[in-house]
Design brief:
It is a single chain. By secondary structure, the protein is of the alpha+beta class. It has four helices and eight strands. The chain has helices at 26-54, 68-79, 84-89, 122-138, and strands at 7-9, 17-19, 94-99, 102-108, 147-155, 164-174, 178-187, 193-202. 24% of the residues are buried.
Length: 204
């Protein structure tokens, strides 16, 4: 139990102290009180500094200052040399516009793109849908274009050598692991729908 003249002080730095001052003159009591306050503030400053260091994120989030169109073109320039099928079928494709989560591109058909009957090959349509979905993902700032998990294509009409196809891809949802996209491919000359596609990609 405390005797007469005992002084109890709470030091606000996460812990408490009990200091016994028996019959201490007021001048020394006041001085000790000031010293304890200074020590408390110093300790609190150290704890705040350590907490700030602990709460720093373990990685830095990259900020993308480039426009969606610049991001898509840069991703396509990196991807084309590593993808023989893209380089073969889509070498001349032109990205004409891009917004966050969507892109628009055009491809002029050559003999490489048509089947034995002179119509655009189904493989080319599927390739366009797959490619467009990846570029739509790239427009969001992702450094990945995803791996296909599901693709559904409806063939609506045809196109021939010399026709230009316009590819319009919009993302319906970009989750933490999956991206869902809708793609329309039309003849540029008359806006006739050539094919539509629903494409899901795993992007984590």
């Amino acid at each position: 139990m405390d005797g007469p003249g005992d002084l109890q002080m709470q030091v606000h730095s996460g812990f408490s102290r009990r200091i016994s001052l028996r019959l201490m003159p007021p001048v020394f009591s006041g001085l000790l009180n000031c010293l304890c306050i200074l020590a408390s503030k110093k300790q609190e400053s150290r704890l705040t500094s350590r907490l700030a260091q602990t709460c720093q994120p373990p990685f830095q989030v990259m900020s993308h200052e480039s426009s969606p169109l610049e991001l898509v073109k840069a991703q396509w320039a990196r991807k084309k040399p590593d993808s023989p099928i893209y380089a073969f079928l889509l070498n001349d494709i032109e990205v004409v516009s891009a917004e966050h989560g969507s892109i628009k591109a055009r491809l002029k058909l050559t003999p490489t793109h048509v089947n034995s009957k002179g119509s655009v090959h189904g493989t080319v349509s599927a390739c366009l849908i797959d490619w467009a979905a990846g570029m739509a993902i790239a427009s969001t700032g992702s450094d990945k274009t995803g791996v296909s998990t599901d693709i559904h294509i409806s063939y609506c009409s045809t196109a021939k050598v010399g026709d230009t196809l316009e590819v319009d891809c919009k993302g319906s949802k970009f989750g933490s692991t999956l991206a869902y996209t809708n793609v329309e491919v039309r003849r540029l000359s008359d806006n006739v729908m050539v094919c539509t596609g629903l494409h899901t990609k795993y992007v984590k």
